[in-house]
Design brief:
Blueprint: H1 48-62, E1 68-69, H2 72-92, H3 97-100, E2 106-110, E3 117-120, E4 124-128, H4 129-134, H5 138-153, H6 156-161, H7 169-182, H8 186-191, H9 195-204, H10 209-225, H11 232-246, H12 253-257, H13 262-272, H14 274-281, H15 287-306, H16 311-318, H17 329-345, H18 349-363, H19 371-388, H20 392-403, H21 415-427, H22 435-451, H23 456-468, H24 472-485, H25 489-502, H26 508-532
Helix pairs in contact: 1-7, 2-5, 2-10, 5-10, 5-11, 11-13, 15-17, 16-17, 17-18, 17-19, 18-19, 19-20, 19-21, 20-21, 21-22, 21-23, 22-23, 23-24, 24-25, 24-26, 25-26
Length: 536
């Protein structure tokens, strides 16, 4: 998919009050005279560093939106696919030293039912949960991510933005945020286009058909070099086209923004050859492929639950239609996993116990070599269910026992396990949360945050742990870091300023902590000044 940018009829300061981000969609193609050529990007004015700064600014605005969600397991799976594609792109030379250490290369999740993905400046890739929920194989998902990555590596966004050399930072960020905010209300978005000049800017910042074809071509090479089936891209296109024909209700913006003609699908087939196409339809499934398919199937089921958490949407998932006898063990496990997660969200203890037992039974039918990962995912689901249904102590005991058992499949340093440990411990009442357990949470979170300082949820958990360990200044710092990680730099500064007023006579250790906070505040204020600049 591409990136649509429309000018706003409101000032940038009003963006904080617009509708939540949920999708990026585009209207029909515009006059080709308004579209940029695919010329050498080296002749363009927007450098990779400038594009990254623009992307950072946009992300600081949208990360506070509740529809940008943080699910550790889904993000872990998306990251595993993304990392394999990045490695292939590097090997192919698509990512050179000018981009390697500059762009974020960071996917994020959008709670949205529509089938969509989009690229933002600086290497940020948005993935709708609706996309993951409808893909049948890892190859189909990887084909979309490879396409979006190729928009980034080929610098399509920079090429388009550079057409308007007088456009300001604020103007560009405002236009992009305007479309994201208005994506739920197309009529409102159309009202924001101000006459012919607005349409011209819209045209300049739409991906051209040539860019889409280039992203298809480069993305196909990345997809296959990463070890995914060459049929994934064509299969994804055909599935989207068929789904749109059956249910054209506007839920397929990826299809609408990409001209999926028979010619384009044919090009995807031609790149593989007829023999490769036939082999890709029914590939031989070894244990590694089965493991990847299981992870995909369970995460697609998880996405289906997370993308719409209303009771009216969850209730049918608890007791879905019975699968045919021809269903594979992976499909059966995914169905029970979906029912378990839906029952957890509904806080139905009876259904949680029933679906968990059934899911464990289905996991036993899997090849022995992949049962450990199935046990891991089911254990984490059981722990989450315990917290959601008011049994935090039981959930904590289950998690601790599994972490101590090598056959459980749990990864003590994995982010899902770290977050589960923090959540279960901090869900206990103060009288039940022992200092040793709280310190264990701190010991798990601190090294994780040294590697991933942008993890807002981890900072929030660390703040709560420090507070319960009677370390209020450390708690303030973690809380401020959490605010900064979600883009609320002013909120982070306000928390530090309040701490300064509170700790007027700090101890020696508190003096060190306050000096660290002062350094962070200096950096946050500089970032805010940079954001207020009106030049590229």
């Amino acid at each position: 998919m591409g990136l649509l940018v429309m000018p706003l009829a409101v000032p940038p300061s009003a963006l904080a009050h617009t509708a939540p981000v949920s999708a990026v969609s585009r209207q029909s193609s515009v006059d080709s005279n308004l579209l940029p050529s695919l010329g050498d990007v080296s002749s363009q004015s927007l450098s990779p560093a400038a594009e990254r700064r623009l992307g950072d600014r946009i992300m600081r605005s949208i990360l506070r939106d509740p529809d940008i969600i943080d699910d550790p397991l889904v993000l872990e799976y998306i990251a595993s696919v993304w990392t394999s594609l990045l490695a292939a792109a590097r090997h192919r030379g698509e990512i050179g030293p000018d981009l390697e250490g500059v762009y974020a290369w960071r996917p994020f999740l959008v709670r949205e039912r529509s089938v969509n993905a989009f690229a933002l400046p600086g290497g940020y890739i948005g993935v709708h949960l609706g996309l993951l929920s409808m893909t049948r194989t890892p190859d189909e998902l990887a084909s979309v991510l490879a396409h979006e990555m190729s928009h980034v590596t080929q610098r399509h966004i920079a090429r388009m933005i550079s057409q308007s050399k007088q456009t300001s930072w604020v103007g560009l960020a405002s236009m992009i945020l305007g479309v994201l905010a208005a994506s739920r209300a197309p009529q409102a978005a159309q009202a924001m286009i101000m006459g012919g000049q607005g349409m011209a800017i819209q045209g300049q910042l739409n991906f051209s058909r040539d860019m889409e074809r280039e992203a298809d071509r480069v993305g196909f090479g990345v997809l296959t070099d990463a070890g995914y089936s060459p049929g994934g891209m064509a299969q994804m296109f055909e599935q989207l086209q068929q789904a749109s024909r059956l249910n054209d209700d506007g839920s397929y913006p990826y299809l609408r923004s990409h001209p999926l003609t028979t010619e384009r699908i044919g090009e995807a087939r031609a790149r593989m050859g007829s023999q490769a196409w036939n082999a890709a339809i029914a590939p031989q499934a070894d244990d590694a492929q089965t493991l990847l398919q299981m992870r995909h199937g369970l995460m697609a089921a998880r996405a289906r639950v997370l993308m719409d958490t209303r009771s009216i949407s969850l209730q049918p998932l608890v007791r879905p239609p019975v699968l045919p006898d021809s269903a594979t063990p992976v499909e059966r496990l995914a169905r029970q996993y979906m029912a378990l997660l839906a029952a957890t969200r509904l806080r139905d203890r009876g259904e949680v116990e029933r679906t968990l037992a059934q899911a464990r039974k289905e996991a036993e039918a899997l090849p022995r070599s992949i049962q450990a990962e199935a046990r891991r995912l089911l254990t984490l689901a059981e722990v989450d269910a315990g917290v959601e249904t008011g049994r935090a102590a039981q959930a904590q005991a289950t998690l601790q026992q599994a972490l101590a058992n090598p056959s459980s499949g749990l990864q003590s340093r994995g982010r899902p396990e770290i977050m589960a440990l923090a959540r279960t411990t901090l869900s206990l009442p103060d009288s039940r949360a022992e200092p040793g357990a709280l310190q264990e949470v701190v010991n798990a979170l601190q090294p994780h945050l040294s590697n991933q300082p942008e993890d807002a949820a981890a900072w929030t958990y660390l703040s709560s742990a420090w507070l319960r360990l009677n370390q209020p200044l450390r708690a303030v710092r973690a809380e401020a870091e959490a605010s900064a990680a979600t883009g609320d730099l002013q909120g982070a500064i306000d928390r530090v300023d309040a701490a300064r007023k509170r700790f007027t006579q700090p101890t020696s250790s508190e003096v060190i902590e306050l000096s660290v906070l002062d350094s962070r505040v200096t950096r946050w204020r500089q970032t805010m000044r940079d954001d207020s600049r009106d030049d590229l």
